Each structure stands twice: as structure tokens, then as C-alpha cells.
Amino acid sequence: MPHIIDTMVIGAGPAGLTAAYTLSKAGREVVVLEADPVYVGGISRTASYKGFLFDIGGHRFFSKSREIVDLWNEILPDDFIERPRLSRIYYGGKFYSYPLKAFEALRNLGLLQSAACVASFGWAKLFPVRAPKTFHQWVRNNFGERLFSIFFKTYTEKVWGMGCDEISADWAAQRIKGLDLFAAVMDGMRRSLGLNRGKGGAKTLIESFRYPRRGPGMMWDAAAKKIRGFGGKIEMDRSVCGLSRDEATGIWTVTARDSAGVEQTYEARRVISSAPIRDLMRAIKPAPISLLHARELKYRDFLTVVLIGRSDIVLPDNWVYIHDPSVKVGRVQNFRSWSPEMLPDEASTCLGLEYFCFEGDGLWTASDDELAELAKQEIAKIGLMRAEDVVDATVVRQAKAYPVYDENYASHVATVRREISLCYPDLHLVGRNGMHKYNNQDHAMMTGLLTAMNIMAGETLYDVWQVNEDAEYGEQGPSGAQEALASVRMVPRRAA
Fold first, then answer.
1. Sheet harboring 331-334: ordered strands across?
2. For residue 439, which phi and psi values (nearest 5 degrees)?
3. What angle do CA 167, 382, 314 make, to 5 degrees?
4. Best exposed site among 348, 394, 406, 482 by fewest CB in 10 Å?
5. 476, 202 Cβ separation under 8 angstroms
6. What is the location of CATH 3.90.660.20 in the chain?
7. Which CATH class is domain 299-403?
8. What confidence tier does 150 reach under pLDDT thresholds 50, 70, 90?
9. Which of 75, 73, 44, 62 is nearest to 431 (CA)?
10. Where in the chain is CATH 3.50.50.60?
């Protein structure tokens, strides 16, 4: 008889590896299947090129959950550094500190524009859109139409490739709830006057963060090593292409294919999946009833054009958000400011220009040389590096980086969830794409941790879907573990 694995984990990103680490540490048998032939960590991996290291998307390490902070320290005890958080916004040919500094913003916008922003905010508060359904409506209600058009519209539409009236208000409520205009203005006044040191607040206002000295991939490489040390297995270059469940025994048959087309079959008592819901439901046989809904879920992809050279332009930022519509780039990362050890020497400059796109569109399919030339032109136009100072470039593509929150996504996910709960009781969804939730790294980890705890308890003690429902969860730095877990605690079911 074939060996039946206790728990099969699909995907070696933060959620999958956290679940596998928790289970294997407790003595449970775990096998992780990862499609990437080289890297663990998913979008939180650290890519490399000629000694230069790149963070795919930028990952600050802080969390409101003591469990997650303790887990980071347990997995990677000696390799964190404290880094200052410095970001700016580029708009209309000018740079704005982010979070905003009141006097700087006033100077850049001008007195009339600033007054118009305040008036627009007042009008929105007096006459709000009732029950806002779109991103535009939500931001307009909370910041006013004028600030929406300046600091939200262009960047958001670059990220998502769709109009702000097509994006669900859920995304705004999840990502920027807890930061209102009054709080931003007061914080900006304190920053302008140098009175903000040591103060906490919403995630966007935090001034420093912890970071692995050689990028976030250090965390996940260490987690993979520890999982193997506990007896777990991580099999790379394994894309899951088939899933079926025997109704009589409850045993899952999982088929995975490597890049050479060779298939391997496993049997498992339960499956934890961080794969995109759309891909997971396509793999299940016979086809689930909710497959039609899963197929409607959309994802946004992006690529990073890395420019390497020598530059005398001082750039202290971790990243710069490009709100200006005159260029296609959406954000620029400065890898040295994340950690000096991301670069092999002290003289080089290494910038990552992030372009948001859809897999298969013009940007995605452009050659690396074409993308490098575009990036050189745009970085010079913005003024962060001269084109002639660039001596080398490379491109990193990331498919399905962001689950899209369009007007119908919630109903599609709800339909899939209902079928899974009824028909596949030992199939657990975790992580950003696994749950189609725009989770941060710590949120994804919490879904993996709580899923593992439910499995070990033999019952559903925690509702994993409540993680990150409150936008303040995981946003303000370490606090008590019980506060973080209380919001997702469920009353244990009584025996019949």
C-alpha cells in the first residue's frame, strides 16, 4: 500500500511554511510541494543577481501579534537589523514625504490647492456617499475628492490596472482603515516640528522596522531548513496538477508535475493550500460546482526592473511611490536602504523599478532589454538616477502578486468557501492567494499558524478567515498575543 502522508502543504510561501513548521515541530508528518525550482518564500523570497539581492515587493517585519514576532525570532534569532522607515511620494515633479509632513505638503501643493483639499474634505464629511461600494467612494468619504485625485487615484490605478470605481471598497477598508485625514494632518504637524519620535500609530506612520540583513528570503530559507530538521519534506519544482478525494476513506490523492513534465502522485489525510484559489479549484477532480466562480477570480502581476550602477544622487528612501501619471513605473525600491548587505560593495547603487501589469500584456511580454531601457528613461525623468550611470540591469517577474478586489470577488470567494466546507472538510485554505485576501506577510503567517493549531486540536478553535478583517490587526507593532488571537477565537464545538 502507498504511504499516506499526514498533511500535504501546497506552496512554500509564508503561510504554507508557517503551517508546515508548526506541524513538523509538533512531530506531525508534513510534505510541502513548491512549484518554484529554486526559491522558497513565494513573493517574500530574496532573488539574487551577480551578488546583488532583491526583495520582491518590499517586506517590513513588524506585527501586532506576539506569536508572529516570537516565531520570527525563533526561526531567525540572530539576523535581524533595525532599519529606519523612509518613503516618499513623487507627484507633479515634486517629492512628498510619506507619511506627509504638513508644511512640506503645503509648500509643494501651494496655498490654493491645500485650501481646496481641506474644503473638499469638509464637503465629503458633510455629504458622504452612503454605504460606499467602490474604492473611489470609500476614499472620497474619508479624505475628500481632491486628495483622492492627487494621492490615491493614479497610483491605485497603476497597481490594479482598472478604474477606482471598479475596485471594491473592501480593499480600501482593509488597507488604509485607521488612518483618517485628521490623524494624518496631526501626525504631519508633529513630523514637521520634529515632535513625532517614539510615537506609535497606524502602520503607515511607523518610523522603523526590523529586517533580515540579507532580505526576507533568509527567514524562509531558515524555516525550510528547520522543517527538514524536524523530519518534514519540501519538494521543489512540483506544480500540483491534480487533486481528488476518496469519499469513503477521506484520503486525498495529489498529483504534481515537475518542469520536465514528470508526474508524481502522493496520498494524504489532509491538504493545506496556499495556491491561488483559481488554480486549486481547476486541479480538483471531478470538477467542483464552484469552479465557475473560482475562474472569475482575477490577479494582478508585476515585474521589477533592477538597475545597477554608480550614482552620486543621495537616496535615503526604502522606496518611492510614483503617483505621477507621466511614467509607467509604480514604485521604486532602494535596496541599500533596506539593508546594506543587499549589495556586494559600498559604492554601487541598486534600484528596483516596479511595474504592475497582467500576465501576457505588453509590459509582461516585453524583452528584458526593452524593459531596462524603459526603466532607465523613467528613473532619469523622476531624478533618482542618471541613465548614463546604469551599467547593468535584470528583470524579475512575479505572477499573481495581488488578488484583485473587483465588485464580484467576495461573492465568488464565498461560493468556493461554502463548497469546500461541505464537500472537502480536510482541505484548508491559507495565505494571500490561497484565500484571495490582500494579506501582509504576518497575516499570511497567522493563517498558517492558526490552521496548524486547528489541525493539532482536531477541531476548529480559530476562524482563520477573520485574520486581517480588522485593518488594525498586525499594523501597530508587537503587543499581547491574546489580543491578536481573541479576534479569531471560536467557541469549541461541544460533543453531541
1. 94-98, 87-91, 319-322, 331-334, 349-357, 299-309, 390-403
2. -90, 145
3. 120
4. 482
5. yes
6. 299-403
7. alpha beta
8. confident
9. 44
10. 4-48+62-79+215-294+407-486
Q: Which three cell numbers stand for residue 67?
A: 506569536
Handedness of CA 109, 111, 117, 121 (dihedral sign): positive
Number of residues written out for the chain: 496
DSSP H helical segments within 131-252, as ranges?
135-143, 145-151, 153-160, 169-176, 181-192, 217-229
Per residue in 426-440, pLDDT (tens digit) is 999 999 999 999 889
The residue assigned the cell 488594525 is 472
DSSP, collapsed to helix, strand or coil, labels residue 372 as helix
> What is the distance between the alpha carbons of residues 254 and 235, in angstroms, rounded to a whole number?
13
pLDDT range class, residue 195, cuts 50, 70, 90: low
Alpha-carbon dihedral sign for residues 209, 214, 217, 221: negative
pLDDT by residue (tens digit) across 118-138? 899 899 999 999 999 999 999
> First CA to last CA across the chain, in angstroms?
35
Which residues lie below 8 Å from residue 484, measured CB to CB, with a gap of 6+?
63, 64, 65, 66, 67, 68, 446, 473, 474
Q: What is the CA radius of gyration of the chain?
A: 23
pLDDT score, position 7: 98
The pLDDT tens digits of the residues spanning 25-66 come to 999 999 999 999 999 999 999 999 999 999 998 898 988 899
Q: Looking at the predicted structure, is the pLDDT value of residue 451 above 50?
A: yes
> Using 50, 70 and 90 to split pLDDT, how confident is the model at 480?
very low
Query: Which pLDDT value is given to residue 389?
Result: 97
State the helix-helix crossing angle for 102-109 and 111-126, rounded to 10 degrees: 110
CA 125, chain centre distance (Å): 31
Contact indicator for 453, 462 with CB cutoff of 8 Å: yes
The C-alpha cell at 221 is 530559507
Distances (CA, A) of 137 to 116, 152, 407: 18, 12, 13
Residue 191 pLDDT = 53
Nearest-angstrom CA–CA distance, 384 and 439: 30
Cis omega before residue 425 (within 30°)?
Answer: no
Please give the Cα distance from 468 to 461 (Å, whole number).
17
Note the pTM of the prediction, 2 decimals: 0.88
Distance CA 466, CA 452 (A): 16
Residues forming a β-bridge with 351: 307, 334
Q: Whose CA is closest to 206, among 194, 196, 215? A: 196
